[in-house]
Amino acid sequence: MDWFSLLKFIHVTSFAAWFGTVFASLFVLRTLQPELTGPPENTALHQQLLKKFIQLETKVADAGFKTAVISGLVLAFFFYGWSVWIFVKIGLVILQVIFTMSYIIKAIQPLTYPCSTDKYRKWYKLFAISFTMFALILLVTFFLL
Ligand code: HEM
């Protein structure tokens, strides 16, 4: 059994699942924008749809994130070693969690619908933060690790 390939397979697949749910959320938020920023008639139903989607998305994203981190740490422990860039990568993952969670608590959770398009843009800022951190982690992984 090639454990290194198996672990890398688990690591990359769980990252892809996590990353995929973030992209899917962006498309859902974009699709629901007219209903959640428009006249209040349809808001309740679409807010419910958004809540259900986020519940399901969070489950997959959580599992993907935890599996990516655990398999990454196991890869480093048994195969790769503890280089400076591994610690940079771990630091970036920690920062990603801090930045996204604090922005969700500060700017996303207080939103009530319908809201102005301006306020709704906070969702897109959350995605910008998340994708920037993904890009930094992937750059470190492919060019520096
Ligand atoms: C604590 C967190 C993490 C640790 C300790 C870690 C560690 C590692 C290690 C040791 C490798 C193997 C490198 C090699 O063999 O050249 C690897 C590969 C990889 N990691 Fe992570 N990783 C972590 C999180 C992440 C995250 C969050 C992502 C995505 C954003 C990610 C994306 C990748 C990818 C795409 C590869 C495959 C690179 C290749 O095939 O050359 N990792 N990681």
TrEMBL record:
Keywords: Membrane, Transmembrane, Transmembrane helix
Transmembrane segments: 6-29, 86-105, 126-144
Name of the featured protein: Protoporphyrinogen IX oxidase
Biological source species: Prosthecochloris aestuarii
